[in-house]
Amino acid sequence: MRNDGPNSITDAELNEVLALVGRGRAIPAVIVAAIIRRLDAAEAGAALSDRLPRSALAA
């Protein structure tokens, strides 16, 4: 994922957060909020692609 500013999270950053969680560490709210925004954007993109005809996706 491209870093679009202070409210986004990169794949590397997400992996670091997952590693911290795996070790039982607390995660700051700002990081959790960025992850939620990323998940929301991914879900919105998936929902859009589900509504588009397959021919539109190939273009």
Overall structural class, as computed from helix and strand content, comes to mainly alpha
- Figure out the total of helices: 3
Broad shape: elongated
Structurally, how many domains make up the residues? 1
Listing every helix as H and every strand as E from the N terminus to the C terminus, the arrangement reads HHH
Radius of gyration: 15 Å
Count of strand segments: 0
Quaternary structure state of the chains depicted: single chain
Pick out the low-confidence regions: none
Major sheet: none
Summarize model confidence as the mean pLDDT. 75
What helical percentage do the residues reach?
Answer: 55-70%
How far apart, in Å, are the first and last alpha carbons? 22 Å
Q: Estimate the strand proportion.
A: under 5%
SSE diagram, text form:
Layout: H1 11-22, H2 29-51, H3 54-58
Task: Explain this structure.
- The chain is mostly helical and 59 residues long.
- The protein has one domain (11-56).
- Helices cover 68% and strands 0% of the residues.
- The two termini are 22 Å apart.
- The model has no long low-confidence stretch (mean pLDDT 75).
Descriptors for this entry?
single chain, 59 residues, mainly alpha, 3 helices, 68% helix
